Structures are given as C-alpha cells and as structure tokens.
Amino acid sequence: MSRTAQEAPRVTPEVMARYEAVIGLEVHSQLQTLTKTFCGCSTKFGAAPNSNTCPVCLGLPGALPVPNAKALELAQRASLAIHCTIQGRSRFARKNYFYPDLPKGYQISMYELPLSTGGWVEIEVEGEKKRIGITRLHMEDDAGKSLHEGFPDSDRWSYIDFNRCGVPLIEIVSEPDLRTPAEAYAYLTKLKQILEYTEVSDCNMEEGSLRCDANVSVRLRGAAKFGTKAEVKNLNSFRYLSHALEYEIERQIGVLESGGTITQETRLWSVAAGRTEPMRSKEFAHDYRYFPDPDLLPVSVSQARIEEVRRSMPELPDAKLARFLSEYGITTYDAGVLTATRSLADYFEATVRAGAPAKGAANWISVELLRRLNDAGRDIANCPLAPGALAELLRKIEKGEITAASGKKVFAQMFETGKSAAAIIASEGLAQITDTSAIERIAREIVAKNPDNVAKYRGGNEGVFKFFVGQVMRETRGQANPQIVNEVVKRILTE
C-alpha cells in the first residue's frame, strides 16, 4: 500500500499551526422547478422508483432535449444574487463518462462557456468579514441514484432509480479563498440562505437538493504555491463538510510530515469510519471529452432580459438585515436570527404589521417562539400561531393588561391549543391586577406576618425588600402590576 493511501499519523497542534489549508467548494443545488431540465417529467421527490422517466431523460435513441425556461430563469436569478456577471452567450456541452446511473453515457453540463462568472459571497467568522470569490455558475442535469444491498460475505445487489436523471442543477464553483473548515461552513450556510431567499432551490439536503464537493490542499504558511489537492465528493450535510475537512487537512499534513507526497485524487467521506477514503484518481477536463451538445442551441441572454430578472429579485439577506436594524431598532443578534430564513423574516414583519411592538416581537420570536417550534420539531412554515395572534398577546403585555410572566403562560396555551390570547386570559383569570387598594391589602398582610424582616429592612438591609415584593407577586400568582407592587411595598415599609 502506498504512503498516500495509508492512514497518516496524527499530528500535534504545533505542527498543524505551521500549515494552512486552501479550500474551494463546488456546490450543486437543485433548481426549484416542477419539471426536469430538458423534458416534461416531474421532479417531485419520493415518487415510486423509475416512475418519473421518459425517452429524453433516459437517453433513448432519437429523443431530443428541450431546455426548461424556468430553470434558466432561476439560474440567472442565482447568478445575480451572488454578484456574478451573466454572459450574453453560453452553451451546453456533453460531459462523457460511464456509470450505471447515467443512462445517456454523458451528462449535459456547461464547460468553456458557463452561464455566469466572476461573483462573490461575503461571510463572517468570529466577527471578521471575508469576501469569497465565485469562479463560475453553470447549469447541468443530474444523474440517477444507485442503491446497494447486502454484505461482503453474502449476496450483494445494486438497484438503479432513474427518477433523478435530468433533474435541473446549478453548480457554483468558488475560488480557493477558504482557509478553514469554519470558513467553509459559513460559506455554505450563506450560499444556502441566498438560494432559499431567492426561491432558486429548497436546499433540502436530506432529499439531495444541496450537495457539496470540497477541493482541499495544504501548504506551509507563507508559501505562495498551492499544494496538491484532493477532492472530497458528495458531502450532503454541514456537519459532514466540517468533519471531512478537519480530517483531510490533518491527513495531508501527516502525510507530508512523514515524508510522503499527496496524490491528486477523489475521496469519499465515510460516516461510519469517520475518515475520508480513496475513491479514484482525480480526473481532468480532457478525461471527460467535453464537446458542445449538438442537440441544443447556444443560450443567448440579452441585457434587457437580465434587467427583467434583476427587477424580479426579492430582498436579499444582507439588505434585509440592514433594513431590520435601521427600521425596527432591534439588536444585531435579533436581526441576524430573524433574517436567517426568509419565512422567519416574513413572520416577524407580519407580526409588527398586525400591531406588535417591533422590539417585543423580535425578542418573543427569537426566544419563546423558536424554542417552542424546536421542541415541537416544527419550522416557522408550520407554526400553529398566526402573526396576528402573537401580535394580540404582545399588545396586551405592552398595555399592562397582563404581566410578562402571565404572558408566557398564555403564549404556551396559544401554541398548544390555537385559542386566542383574550379567551385564555378570561378563562384562566390571568388579567393583571392594577387595583392599588387590593395590592395594598395583600402587602400589609404579608408585612404583618414578617416582623423580623421588617426590622431588618428598617435597620438598613435593603435586600429584604425583594423578599416582600416576591411574596406579593406569589400571592397574586404573578398577576399584580410590578410597578404598583414596588411602590406600595416601599410606602408600607417606610411608614
């Protein structure tokens, strides 16, 4: 076994610190269309195996592809969202390779004339912002899916599901600007957020809508030349991306430190083993024998069309975050949480439009609502609490009709039952007590029962004051107006 294929020795943090990684990501995202790239077959996930197929996506003789206009529009939208320049002329090519789940014997992609080039995405890691360059964005169709059963010591079976054949993808290729797994994680997170905001893709990694290949090499810090890279294929979760990069960086450093050399190759991340493993030697472009697809005309995009797509673009995450800060006066943290997804940002704004105070709405959504949704295994799209219902509760708290503590009880019941705040407050008797005389009566009873603590307070121990306030709030089940309680208790204790 060659040294490059062996497990590299573990290296110390001091040795690791002498090197830096150079990382580039190739992100494949499924476009959110109803039909495939070049035919009318459905892209719906979960259909019976091989039910969403036709002569075109199966590559049968004589079948001719017809480009999906919606897929092209979404790819253009994604290009503008990541600041790429859409080329006036691009072209589909055939990428030739042979694999059981590729019935045509080639993939339709773009090669020397991609759809767009020269963009960037800005990320933030540990408070530091960094711009990551985008080399290109191009369109392609997906291959099928192989499924394997059995074990090495028994019969093994492989099955092919061609439903994914022809599903529309965009591939976004970054510059080798990433230096750490944390930066790669932040970049993929930001890219996913942008694609979801623009409704280009649902980015459902469990269903294969977002996949990532990582090119990684290492070099001594300060060196100008890149090291030999390995490509880690088909990383379909953020956690796997981080773990695979951490392992691969340490593996390559270990190989170099032990006197070995890195071979350019393709590797796979083994979840079970917790390591990358060799798959094949790395292909080069000439291995795929690219040539223009003779069945597809070049794609021509006018400047007028580009501007039309630009006008249809929704507000992007960075712009929305800046607006939330200036328009609503909320904290940077809350603005970041609320703009993490477009649906959550829309929910917040709908709550404010329904009459809720912006800062209160931001706090309750960021803390209480998201915690409840997480515990229930739901997302904001399936929230049982409408924005108007939450706004009603927050208005009651702001007006002093109920206390914040009672508000949490009401909120919990609203989430579970779907009842209105008013109905729950009435049925549970949770309206805030603002009757000064009623609060004073309770406070005097408590003071009379605790002469020792009264003496301590009057002797200069002001900390005892909180004891009396707490007793009054307890007696009133947290429904007494806190400001009135403080005023009444202070007056009684100083009589």
Question: Explain this structure to me?
Answer:
Strand 12, helix 4 and strand 13 form a beta-alpha-beta unit. The strands form 4 sheets. The chain has a 9-stranded mixed β-sheet. Residues 1-6 have low confidence and may be disordered. The chain has helices spanning 13-16, 69-81, 181-197, 238-257, 303-311, 317-328, 332-338, 342-353, 358-376, 387-399, 404-417, 421-428, 436-449, 451-458, 465-475, 482-493, and strands spanning 19-30, 85-86, 89-90, 92-96, 106-110, 116-125, 128-141, 145-149, 157-161, 168-174, 210-220, 230-235, 265-270, 275-281, 291-292, 299-300. The protein folds into 3 domains: 3-304, no CATH class; 315-428, no CATH class; 436-493, Arc Repressor Mutant, subunit A (Orthogonal Bundle), CATH 1.10.10.410. The protein is of the alpha+beta class and 495 residues long. It contains 16 helices and 16 strands. The protein starts with 12 loop residues before the first helix and ends with a helix. The longest helix has 20 residues, at 238-257. Helix content is 39%, strand content 20%. Helix 13 (436-449) crosses helix 15 (465-475), helix 13 (436-449) packs across helix 16 and helix 15 crosses helix 16 (482-493).
